[in-house]
Amino acid sequence: MTSDDTVRPGRSRSIDTYAALPAEQTEAVLGLLDEAAATDGQQAVSEQGRLQLRGGEREGVSHLLLTVDGELLGYAQLEDTDVVEPPAAELVVHPEHRGQGHGRALGSALLAASGKRLRVWAHGGHSAARHLAQVLGLTLFRELRQMRRPLTDFDAPEPVLPDGVTVRTFVPGQDDAAWLAVNAAAFAHHPEQGSLTQRDLDDRKAEPWFDPAGFFLAFRGDELVGFHWTKVHAEEGLGEVYVLGVGPGAQGGGLGKALTTIGLRHLAGQGLPTAMLYVDADNKAAVSVYERLGFVTHEVDLMYRTET
Questions:
Q1: What is the pLDDT of residues 28-71, one digit of tens each?
Q2: Which CA distances in Å does 247 have to 83, 184, 194?
Q3: β-pair type (119-123, 88-93)
Q4: Sign of torsion, CA 258 262 265 267?
Q5: In the chain, what is the straight-line distance between the N-terminal and C-terminal CA atoms, in Å?
Q6: Strands 139-150 and 165-169
Q7: Who's near 57: CB < 8 A, 6+ residues apart?
Q8: Rounded to the nearest 5°, which phi and psi values hold at 40?
Q9: Which residue among 18, 56, 204, 251 is least enclosed by CB atoms within 10 Å?
């Protein structure tokens, strides 16, 4: 999320909304996101948002393109799929065209499209985003921490699994339905993760980074009871605790700790120097666990929302 003030005189700004973007516009938006990331140090639109740019129309998702004299200078995505929470949005303005009112224009368009019930992510929590949130009348609602720790000195003991639990890696196609069910149960109160669908899983399986050898499943008999899906960011030299979940009936027995260790040992074995993960700041128990494992806060993403 970025902030700005007034458009230059003599230029024509327009914002158009699409249910799906054709290939040419999708590539233009991805190019805009990459240019902004090079300046800001992180992506303005999440992995889920970038995946939703491709593959045609998706229920509840709309794309707002801001152009000035036909040139793409801003983008916003609005997702209205949560039956309880207000629609969620992400937005970005080209780094060379900030300070001209484009962020405020996109924010106002999002407020109008959502019926003034809106949540907006500000990845990195920059001051410009805080200013824009204030201008739009939004208040801080959620803090998502990115935590990191070195892997070069990771020397954890062999993980101890609960009695009767075995671990193997994910088999695409065979394990999809079981994983989606346990993921939904483990993240029933999580605003994004718990709502993943087969299409969302397929999107990730099609990404170049997907590697089932780093996707660990824990079974008690034939029942899937937990998982640790790791991800490698090769260019950055980062290994990620991508998703770690334990089914409600298997929580509290040490399975989460064992799965965490299995995944981190795998990432360290890949020769990656650093591990990262995301965790909500108000999830004190999880933050405490990760801190005991040597993770420290690296940066934060903030979510702002309209008053309810």
A1: 999 999 999 999 988 999 999 999 999 899 999 999 999 999 99
A2: 23, 9, 12
A3: parallel
A4: negative
A5: 21
A6: unpaired
A7: 19, 20
A8: -85, -20
A9: 56
The amino acid occupying position 289 is V
Distance CA(3)–CA(246), nearest Å, equals 39
> Position of tokens 């149960």?
185
Distance of CA 189 to the CA centre of its chain: 16
In the numeric block, which tokens belong to residue 136? 């739009």
Contact (CB, 8 A) for 297 and 284: no
pTM across the whole model: 0.85
Type of residue at 195: S
Long-range contacts of the stretch 260-265 (C-beta < 8 A, 24+): 260/228, 260/289, 260/293, 261/156, 261/157, 261/159, 262/159, 262/167, 262/216, 262/228, 263/214, 263/216, 263/228, 263/229, 263/230, 264/151, 264/154, 264/156, 264/239, 264/293, 265/154, 265/156, 265/159
Tokens representing 88 are 């969620």
The values of phi and psi at residue 2, to 5°, are: -130, 160
Dihedral over Cα of 239, 47, 123, 22: its sign = positive
Tokens 């990262």 belong to 276
Assess contact for 234 and 185: CB atoms under 8 A.
Answer: no
The residues, ordered by sequence, that sit 6+ positions from 160 with a Cβ below 8 Å of its Cβ are 254, 258
Q: Name the residue type at position 307.
A: E
Mean pLDDT of the chain: 92
SS3 301: strand
